[in-house]
Amino acid sequence: MRQYIFRRILLIIPTMIGVTMLVSLITQLLPGDFIDVMLADHVGQGEDVEEIRAKWEEELGWDKPWIVQYGNWLWRLVQGDLGTSLIGAFQTVNEELKTRIPVTLELGVLSLIVGVAIALPVGIISAVRQDSAIDYLTRGGAILALSIPGFWLAVLIIRVIFPQLGLPSLPLLYSDPTENLAENLRQMYIPAIILGIGLAGPVMRLTRGEMLEVLRQDYVRTARAKGLQENSVIVRHAMRNALIPVLTLIGLSASILVGGSVIMESIFTLPGMGLRMITALKDRDIPVVMGIMVVIAIVVIVANLLIDIAYSLVDPRIRYN
Amino acid sequence: MSERNYWQRMRRRQMSRRALLGASARAGVGAAGLALVGCGDDDDDGQQAAAQVAQQQDGQQQAMQQQQQQQAMQDQAQQQADQADAQEDGAQQDQQQAMVATADHIIRGGRRVAPFVGPYSGDPPTLDPYENLTYRAQIPSGFHYSKLIQAISGGDGVNPGNTAQYENDLAATMPEIPEPTVFNFTLREDANWHDVDPLNGRQITIADIQATHDRFKEISANAAGWDGVIAQFTTGEDNSIRFDLHKPHAPFLTLAGSSQHMWIMPQEIVDDGTVAQRPVGSGPWIFENFEPGVAINWRRNPDWHRSRDYVNAMVESGAGGYNGISNVDPQLFPLMDGITATMNGDVNVLIPALGDGSLDYSQLSPAIFKQAQDAAPDIEDTAGYVFTLNTVPGGFYFNYSIPPWNDVRVRLALSMSMDRDGILAATDDTGRGGWHSPLSQIAPYWLDPKDLDAFGETFEGDDSGLTFHRDIAKARALLDAAGFPEGIQATLHGTADYGATVVNLYEACASSASEAGFQFEFFFKEYAAYIASIFRGNFPDDWDGESSHLAIGPLYGGATDPEDIWAAVYARTSGRHNWGSGGRTPDGLASVLEIDTGGHAEAWSHPNAVSGGGPETDERLHDMFTKQKELLDFDERLEYTRDIQRYMSTKQYMVPYVAAPGVYAFNPWMQQLEPRDGTLIENADQRMWPKANYAWGAEAEPFFMLNQSIKDDYV
Predict the structure, then answer these.
(1) Which pTM was predicted?
(2) What SS3 class is residue B586?
(3) B6 Cβ contact partners less than 8 Å away, ≥ 6 residues apart
(4) Would you call A73 an interface residue with chain B, using a CB distance cutoff of 8 Å?
(5) B380 closest CA partner among B370, B394, B390
(6) Rounded Cα–Cα distance for residues B254 and B251 (Å)
(7) Which residue, of A301, B96, B465, B610, has the fewest CB within 10 Å?
(8) ipTM value greater than 0.95
(9) What would the pLDDT profile of B122-143 be if each residue is shown by its tens digit?
(10) CB of A174 within 8 Å of any CB in chain B?
(11) How far apart are CA B559 and CA A36, in angstroms?
(12) How far apart are CA A124 and CA A264, in angstroms?
């Protein structure tokens, strides 16, 4: 097991190089860059914009070939330096991420809790009560959850549901949970529910499908024949086995949650990585984009590793050599 | 709400209280006002003032009781007989009460929460205003920096939107002008940098001014225009600042006071190159922090030099109940404790937040004005909306040397195909929008093309005002004469990143033009890519590999003088590729011209280019631009800029679209003072937004009050 984990950790290195190289290459292909953003409105001032651009490019090291730029960035990354933001107050990317990661993580964890809390019981009940009214209802709900875009649901809640119920709008300004947990949760709960609902749809459907399959297995029939209580059959025998693919899906959802947080953080002004990604892309703040991509890649890789490890815990038959 | 008009309701509240204070008002005390504005220091003077106030309050209470008794007796005995006298007394009392009330209404405190700019907000790409000239970098600078002079803002006597009125800021007074090419300023001696590290409230010196100027010249893109006007800039140890111009330049004060020119910076920060990291200025607000995508925060500068000027003006003017009050806190302004500018630009968030009071203020898109009114009915009830003129010129623009756009008939046909009122009806909920001329709506220079009497139907025999009015038959005839009887199909370049409202505007323009035979297909680029190419006049290839050389969009922001627009958008010296400057071709090739450019060798080059199509070869226009800068008589220049607009409308170098107004919604607890006499500005049209432009942080925000007690009533 240790050997397996060690091997997987080693694999992170080439994976990270591949991911970051790809992202770096894509950012090179984007039309326009940070210098264009800075030079907006220089047009019409009688200036030689090309000359200014050349000066900027030299200062930023962009006059060198892409591979050299990437190599320099990678070398700094190895030293733990993700570079400096090109916009605003020129904060280092490390500093920015230090404050942004916890917000995105909090939103992700809350969404995961909401999603799993909805999906697992509903999926199991749907499977156990197959083809009943409740099954049809929950399956319909899952399809709805799958098909409703998060941003649309957010707008619906903010513009229609909240005013209809006479609820105050969500706080515009972020509160740190260590300073004001209640206010923090007041700001987080709606985006967490929206992201959680989006996650719950597929997880619920997979849970139901897996449960249905497991419930038809011989060992479940044997458990029932032994006279075990139905709850015990479902929870101890069926659910444990049915959850393995569900865990995979939840693990893979880590990246979806980070992606979804881009939209939710923008709508609800949550100062996480997603919101920063949007502003960084808009201004072509490539060091920040690269920094965030590194974090996302690490999250996805680690989440997958943890899921693999969790397999062996959930199903003792699985052993890694 | 039981009463229709918020201000009436507020007055009524104040009046009932004022009835009790009537006697004290007669005694000339104005104690409530003093208590609020005379926030004395901890020194003896302050204690003395406080003691005086306490004595005055005691006397006031006694007087109040006496007055109440007297009034009650009088009411009983002479209820009917003295009706006429009572009315007269009432009028006097109202007058005196009003004096107290105007002093009484000043409330300091509160932190205003507002979006950075309206529905399409954007993070400042830098906090260095010299590195980036867009509104995104300039507007934040207006909060923490000062200039030598600034636009006059305010209520009565100040023409809203008039960009030609200036007053001193860091200069001790407005300049002496011994001759038309010399402007002498003196640096004021009572201005200090913000009390933050490393300046710690140090006095601003002439060395700071020189360092700022040198940096401005080195970095700012606007320095080129500056150099074209200013031959020499000198500072003296006697705090003198002298500008020597190459030749008389009518809009010089606009240049010196522009929010896109010389924000004054401290020498230390300039020297260590950390302007973008830690902006330290001398403006009304001290920069606290900026979190990209989230917010910028400022706190009040308790030592703002302009505050003393305004307080003195209040006391000297005698208006607003300040006559004879000697101990008004000289550091009264800014009135708010701080400002939080959220970066959330999502209207779906902003509108409910405005409605429930999470936001104190918001800029609104004119297209969602009605939605906002529905969401925030309290605002509708208070005349809390401010509508501003649209100072951003925009429309269809072209490569003028490329057929068919080099043909004036095609451009005129495009202009005459547009149903400008219809476009406004489709994109502007406010009903206050207007039409752009070749100039944006900068007051007082803009000439309304809709008003044919003022604009003139023709200019020197050619259609001028008429070219803005829809005439499909004539547009078709012009296209026919130009060789396009079947109309013109073209790709219309632009960006969708100015927001949904602007995209709707583009679509309305295209739809409107289709009736005359123009068929446009949109080709949108993401903002950075758009700026990098189309905005500069480099029209990229379309889907089919050919460029249409046609685009739509805004072309200049923050204009305060016609010269800003003439120089940047139309002039031969403009840096735009499509207007004919610099010899920079779209693909970066040198300007090797094999065509007749009318003697302007630097004109833009393209294989299909033909001469004479654009403003770069228009000698008449060039001469007019030159002349208007030299007309020092304001009225004469004003009339001449109008002639330029008339002439340009015969050419339609840019075919302007319409000008929906800026809309600003203020919740009822946001009040504003006229900074010269301390009276509340109740008429939204008199508010200062239109002219403050990018510098509203310094020119408007210090005079906003956040009345927490009113807010508590609402929220």
Answers:
(1) 0.78
(2) coil
(3) B378, B381, B382, B383, B384, B668
(4) no
(5) B370
(6) 5
(7) B610
(8) no
(9) 788 889 988 877 788 888 999 9
(10) yes
(11) 21
(12) 29
